Amino acid sequence: MATSAVARETVFALRRQIAKIEGTLPERLEAPAGAAPVDADVTPRDLTIVRRGLAVAPPDAFLRTGAEGLDTALSGGLPKAALSEFHGAATRDAGVVAGFALSLVSLILKQEPPRLPVLWIGTAEVFREAGFPYARGLHGLFGIEPEQLLFSEAPRLLDGLWVAEEAARMTALAAVILEIRGSPQRLDLTATRRLHARAQSAGRPVFLLRQAGEAEPTAASVRLVLSAAPSAPRQTLAGPLAGSIGRPAFTVSIGKSRTALPGQFTLEWNPDERNFEERRAGEERAANPVPVVSAPRRGKDPAAASGAVLAFAAVGSPAPGDQPSPGERAAHRRPRRAG
Questions:
Q1: Contact indicator for 43, 230 with CB cutoff of 8 Å
Q2: Could you give the CA distance from residue 196 to residue 205 in angstroms, rounded to a whole number?
Q3: b/e for 158-194, b at 16 or more Cβ within 10 A?
Q4: Which of 100, 76, 138, 148 is nearest to 267 (CA)?
Q5: Which of 155, 201, 152 is nearest to 177 (CA)?
């Protein structure tokens, strides 16, 4: 019995070491009775949830989006010290993917006491197709100062990967964003493993943005497929404002995760609170206790619903459908007098 117990302890120790090398949680295997759950040399950075519903990682190891459904599906949120992958099915979805990444950067900068910069890496082709973020939009929608977002335009993908690997190991950056177009051969398992390992070592997230790329095998712990969702109307005191455009909305599908089952969510970005809110199908948005539009200073009733409203009273104007007389039309055509 003693020999069997020692052999079992040795097997579990070897499995824990293999799990550490693979970057997964050693505690995913059932430990023998009386054994310590975590090795003494396992740091919190190495703890990554790999079993659904197993909450053993520290709370600060994950970036919570604010959408409870997505955070619960991801067993706590997106891992901070890891490579995460965001896909857009077509080139037209590049703005959606970039907006979602900037929303996550806003969440990171809100949590980090020192406002560290963020490095965005891409090739000339990527920036030519999708463009650069607008400075006023960065501050207004995401609370990101323009000087906090640094750009690196690489002539080739190989150079962009090298810059990303060097930047991923730096702790002076809040996050690293690498934007790739298509499905290049250079972006393989080896390249993504290096990015993931450096992100784990530095304790900083690396976001891989894919424009019109295929879902190929990578070392990313999470892969989200993003597309634009219809924005809900703006909320006022009188209810939804018909014909208006509300908050930015995203359709988020979990394409790959070590901890979650596939699922789809519709998220709205709240630029005031700077967090995500989940919109459920068939349900109205939860009532906001704070008025979205301030009440009028004079009068108790809010303004009437929008419609065909004239700024001035139509005094002496012809009724709808009336046409000017031939004399009036001729007068309109005459040139005006000088002076």
A1: no
A2: 9
A3: eebbebbbebbbeeebbbbbbbbbeebeebeeebbeb
A4: 100
A5: 152
User: Taking the CA of residue 288 as centre, how many other CA atoms within 13 Å lie in the half-sphere pointing to its CB?
Assistant: 17
CA-angle at 301, arms to 299 and 307, nearest 5°:
115
Q: What is the pLDDT of residues 171-205, one digit of tens each?
A: 999 999 999 998 898 899 999 999 999 999 999 99
DSSP 280-293: -TT-PPPPPSS-SS
For 75-102, b where at least 16 C-beta lie within 10 A, e where not — what string?
bbbbbbbbbbbbbbbeeebbebbbbbbb
Exposed, middle or buried by CB within 10 Å (0-12, 13-18, 19+), for 215?
middle
pLDDT at 209: 96
Residues 82 and 206: beta-carbon distance below 8 Å: yes
Strand 62-63 with 78-79, pairing:
antiparallel
d(CA 28, CA 48): 10
Q: Which residue has the tokens 């117990």?
A: 5
Q: How far apart are CA 57 and CA 181, in angstroms?
A: 34
Q: Which residues contact 192 (CB under 8 A, 6 or more apart)?
A: 83, 208, 218, 219, 220
- At residue 44, the 3 state secondary structure works out as helix
Vertex 65: Cα angle to 64 and 68 (nearest 5): 85
pLDDT band, residue 329 (cuts 50/70/90)? low
Statement: the pTM of the whole predicted model exceeds 0.70: no
**Is it the case that residue 55 has pLDDT exceeding 60?**
no
Which pair of structure tokens corresponds to residue 196? Answer: 């993931």
CB 179 within 8 A of CB 133: no
